[in-house]
Design goal:
- The protein has one domain (2-213): 3-Layer(aba) Sandwich (Rossmann fold), CATH 3.40.50.
- It is globular and about 50 Å long.
- The protein has six helices and nine strands.
- The chain is an alpha/beta fold.
- The longest helix has 16 residues, at 151-166.
- The strands form two sheets. The protein has a seven-stranded mixed beta sheet with strand order 5-4-3-6-7-9-8, with helices on both faces. A two-stranded antiparallel sheet has the order 1-2.
- InterPro entries: Ribosomal_L11_MeTrfase_PrmA, SAM-dependent_MTases_sf.
- GO terms for molecular function: protein-lysine N-methyltransferase activity.
- One of its GO terms (biological process) is methylation.
Length: 228
């Protein structure tokens, strides 16, 4: 089945540079609705989730740019790229010198896509289809892009990530201002003007930020660079 999905991705997408991180190329779709329909036809199912793996979302692009510009954030560390989708952020982390990246996503197509994309960029990724929310496997850094578009998901994930930061992990969140981003709990690190797909967003360019959780006292990783 993975081979079938890999062939489908190759047939229905194009290998293109990521707009805000052109050092990385991904297999990307030209138009969301058509690919969504073709995915449902391929699996003979209706009501599948959108093909998140086929687009370079704003939060992921911002995180990838931040990591590439600040490789010390991940260099030599064990990294989790949570809700990885295409694998963009994990690929950026490997290019920046991470010791290992686990790219996690529950979507079958995402697992196939991130493998293709990692190979296209000449880096290894370890993929995981497990639901890791609530788990702690000792990651040094957790990268999470575009996770705050649903209320219940955003609450569960951000509480989990905050707990990981409390024990010493460095947590970075990329987000263009989704409805359920808990801004009051976060510290701003960087802001970018990110080109996006008009069919998925309400603009051609989204102002997108990289955040971490605000902490009352200094913790490991508190020297992460800020960009104003």
């Amino acid at each position: 089945m993975i081979a079938d999905r890999t062939a489908f991705i190759r047939a229905e997408t194009r290998l293109l540079p990521v707009p805000h991180a052109p050092e990385i190329s991904l297999y990307l779709a030209d138009e969301a609705t058509a690919l969504w329909q073709k995915t449902e036809d391929e699996l003979g199912a209706i009501g599948l989730p959108p093909p998140f793996w086929a687009f370079a979302w704003a939060g992921g692009q911002a995180l990838a740019r931040y990591v590439l510009d600040h490789p010390e954030t991940v260099r030599g560390r064990h990294v989790l790229d949570f809700a990885s989708g295409s694998g963009l952020v994990g690929i950026a982390a490997m290019k920046a010198g991470a010791a290992q990246v686990i790219a996690c996503d529950i979507d079958d197509f995402a697992i196939a896509a991130m493998s293709l994309n990692a190979a296209a960029n000449g880096v290894p990724l370890t993929s995981s289809q497990d639901d890791l929310v609530g788990q702690d496997q000792g990651w040094d850094v957790v990268l999470a892009g575009d996770i705050c578009y649903e209320r219940d998901l955003a609450l569960a994930v951000t509480d989990w990530l905050f707990a990981l930061q409390l024990r010493g992990a460095a947590i970075l969140i990329g987000d263009p201002g989704r409805s359920y981003l808990p801004v009051a709990r976060l510290q701003h690190l960087a802001e970018y003007e990110v080109p996006v797909t008009r069919t998925l967003e309400d603009a051609d360019v989204k102002k997108t930020s990289v955040w971490r959780f605000a902490m009352p006292d200094r913790i490991p990783g508190d020297d992460l660079p800020c960009r104003r």
